[in-house]
Write a structure and sequence with these properties.
The complex is a heterodimer of chains A (about 375) and B (about 280).
Chain A lengths: L2 H5 L12 H14 L4 E3 L2 E3 L7 H17 L3 H24 L8 H21 L5 H25 L10 H10 L1 H36 L1 H15 L3 H12 L3 H24 L4 H9 L4 H36 L8 H10 L3 H29 L10
Antiparallel strand pairs in A: 1-2
Chain B lengths: L21 E10 L7 E11 L4 E5 L6 H8 L7 E6 L4 H6 L3 E4 L11 H12 L3 H14 L15 H14 L4 E5 L7 H18 L2 E6 L2 H7 L2 E6 L4 E7 L14 H16 L6
Parallel strand pairs in B: 3-7, 3-8, 5-6, 6-7
Antiparallel strand pairs in B: 1-2, 1-4, 8-9
Helix pairs in contact in B: 3-4, 3-5, 4-5, 7-8
The chains are: A mainly alpha (about 375), B alpha/beta (about 280).
The structure holds adenosine-5'-diphosphate and magnesium ion.
The site of adenosine-5'-diphosphate has 13 residues of chain B, from β2 and α1.
Chain lengths: ~375, ~280
């Protein structure tokens, strides 16, 4: 076997290629065949004990063979991916059949092989730039984690009170959708949005002011360190006492949390213009305002986005925690605190899911906006 | 050393000498420093630059070339002496946007395309959009950058970036062009090319140029007058007339006249012990 065949296995035929990665996948698969795949009605069940398991096995093996003879590496990766899907589906199928997987070492070994195979496929896919690398690979990765969670929880019959399976959380999301939407509207669309705009806006405005009045910056920056050390659970009840149960108190908490990060980032951004760029503006007899708009603010954009992104996460946390201390009977924090007390963990997990999706949605949206507006920055340039 | 003789070789023949565009009298500048040992960057500098001149400031690094240029541009305040630009104080001249400044680095704004970089000074002057664009295109064409209007600075080579920054300075249509080692960071081939470009530009536009360099060949090739400076403290040692024909090609560097002037410049630098260390 020559060297080049091992370096580009996907363009060579099955007969000539040596691929140690594939050997690593094959070994646990072979080991799996010697083990039972679970127990049904008190009896252990083997691979060929009358279930559909052999079909999944053969299907998966066939896709590996097909993938390795595919004309290109990427097409091969796609084919192998379908085999991995089959392998993941096997335990789900067995669970539906009422098979107890906790005694099924064969299935778990088979899944280990599938994970190794997924590893290999993701490696191949991530070599491809564009949306394959930036969207598909992380998406498949996350999906793999979710399915693993599902299989582990159901296979080992973890009580739902400790950790429900993702499918159960999804069910709760659908079932409680109207309530969750009301919570979302109260917490995100009202409290977070307003508080975020006020906090970031005030931080930005004061930064511009402090830029003109140097003693302000000197006086405020040490306070920023102090403010960032304030615990939310400390100020939240105070703000509820000051501003009442509705969104105003949540917005106040958010303002306290987001003001200084925005101030600090804006000031850092404003002072990041290079001397030569400033001299250029001076040579054009540009005044303070012109220099600010044409040079210093565009130049500060990466810093501004940094502040905005940090704050999007802080604002959501702030609003949810503040709702623990008093709210009209709606809101994500309120929902979590009351449903925990009622042991309605499905709803709690559904709320957590909404919060997590919202948080990453806000962050991701800002990151996209940042990419669109600061494509010129060295850290954003695609080569 | 420097005799203030206004009658030099210039395009004008027989006409009275025009008023100087820059006039410095015993100019000095001392930088205060943190360790309380002030640096004398300029000491007793007398310099007269006539309209249409191409004046090179040459000397080892640290002799105050950049400082002198920045004083003319009102980017630095002198601590002694007097200076006028177009008969005004440097500040008045700056506020009237009478000069264009080309910095040592291109200093293009990375978030603007090449064309919008060239349009920047025009935006600040409040020139209408259509005219802005027309002027930017014209200047980009002049420096040989047509077709690169929509590119971003980082998509251009170093030489092209520096040409874009020259176009930006030209867009103001200043009579006075101040250039601080604009080609210092470029390779020799690009540099030769841009020097040729610059001398043609200077000849065709009739601008006054003040050009900082530490290359003798570059100074002789481009200039009508060469100001030799020396460090510690920064002062003018000699002003050498460079009376080669105004129309110059790169071949001129092989001529004996060129060699003679280069020799004088080198002697001037030697006198200032520039080669000591
Ligand atoms: N902003 C400054 N503060 C203190 N010293 C400076 C400053 N700028 C320049 N200098 C000093 O002044 C002297 C002349 O500098 P410069 O004009 O930049 O020289 P050149 O351009 O000829 O190399 C040098 O000794 C330099 O260290
Ligand atoms: Mg210099």
């Amino acid at each position: 076997m020559s060297r080049e065949t091992t370096t580009n296995t996907h363009t060579t035929s099955l007969r000539t290629a040596v691929d140690w990665g594939l050997v690593a996948v094959a070994l646990p698969t072979l080991a799996a065949l010697t083990q039972p795949i679970g127990a049904r009605g008190g009896e252990t069940l083997g691979w060929f004990g009358g279930s559909l398991a052999p079909l999944f096995l053969i299907g998966a093996v066939l896709t590996v063979l097909a993938g390795r003879t595919a004309p290109t590496r990427i097409k091969g990766a796609w084919t192998e991916l379908s085999g991995i899907v089959l392998a993941w589906l096997l335990p789900l199928h067995l669970l539906d059949e009422g098979v107890d997987l906790s005694a099924g070492a064969g299935v778990w070994l088979f899944l280990v092989a599938a994970i190794l195979q997924l590893w290999r496929v993701l490696g191949a896919l991530s070599a491809r730039p564009g949306w394959t690398r930036s969207v598909l690979v992380p998406g498949l990765f996350g999906l793999g984690l979710l399915i693993a969670w599902e299989i582990l929880v159901r296979g080992f019959q973890v009580p739902a009170i400790l950790l429900p399976a993702p499918s159960r959380i999804a069910g709760a999301l659908v079932q409680h959708a109207p309530v969750l939407w009301d919570d979302f509207r109260q917490t995100v669309l009202i409290s977070v949005l307003r508080g975020y705009l006020m906090g970031c806006g005030a931080g930005f405005a004061v930064a511009i002011l402090a830029d003109r009045v140097p003693f302000l910056a000197r006086g405020l920056l040490p306070l920023g360190n102090l403010a960032s050390a304030i615990p939310v659970v400390g100020i939240a009840p105070i703000m509820v006492m000051w501003f009442g149960f509705d969104w105003q108190s949540k917005a106040a908490v958010i303002v306290v949390m987001t003001f200084f990060p925005m101030l600090v980032n804006t000031l850092a951004g404003l002072s990041s213009a290079e001397r030569i760029q400033l001299d250029l503006m001076r040579s054009y007899a540009a005044g303070y305002g012109r220099t600010l708009v044409k040079l210093r603010l565009p130049n500060a954009l990466p810093f501004l986005f940094n502040g905005l992104k940090i704050n999007s996460t802080l604002a959501l946390i702030g609003a949810i925690v503040a709702e623990f201390f008093g709210t009209p009977v709606v809101g994500m924090g309120f929902r979590i605190s009351t449903e925990v007390a009622r042991m309605n963990l499905d709803v709690v997990w559904a709320s957590i899911t909404v919060a997590a999706l919202t948080g990453s949605g806000l962050y991701g949206g800002l990151a996209l906006l940042e990419r669109a507006t600061t494509a010129w920055h060295p850290s954003m340039r695609r080569r | 050393m420097h005799s203030p003789s206004p009658s030099r070789t210039s395009g004008a023949t027989g006409q009275p000498a025009p008023a100087p565009i820059v006039q410095a009298r015993s100019l000095s500048l001392v930088y205060p420093t943190a360790d309380n040992r002030p640096v004398t960057a300029l000491s007793e500098v007398d310099l007269t630059i006539a309209r249409g001149d191409f004046v090179s400031l040459i000397g080892p690094s640290g002799c105050g070339k950049t400082t002198l240029l920045r004083v003319i541009a009102d980017l630095e305040q002198p601590t002694g002496g007097s200076i006028t630009v177009e008969g005004l104080t440097p500040e008045q001249a700056r506020l009237k946007r009478l000069y264009g400044y080309v910095f040592q680095a291109p200093a293009l704004y990375p978030w603007r395309t090449v064309e919008r970089n060239v349009m920047l000074p025009l935006e600040i002057m409040g020139i209408p959009r259509a005219e802005r664009q027309a002027r930017a295109r014209e200047e980009l064409q002049r420096v040989g950058l047509s077709g690169f209007e929509r590119k971003f600075p980082w998509q251009l080579s170093g030489g092209m970036q520096q040409r874009a920054s020259i176009a930006r300075a030209l867009a103001l249509k200043p009579d006075l062009l101040l250039m601080d080692e604009p080609f210092g960071a470029l390779d020799e081939i690009t540099r030769d090319h841009l020097n040729l470009h610059l001398t043609q530009l200077w000849r065709s536009t009739g601008k006054t140029c003040v050009f900082v360099t530490h290359s003798i060949a570059e100074a002789v090739f481009l200039s009508t007058r060469i100001v030799v400076m020396s460090p510690r403290p920064g002062r003018i040692l000699d002003v050498i007339d460079c009376d080669l024909p105004r129309e110059r090609t790169l071949d001129i560097r092989e001529s004996p006249e060129f060699a003679a002037i280069a020799h004088r410049v080198r002697d001037g630098l030697k006198e200032g012990h520039s080669y000591d260390d």
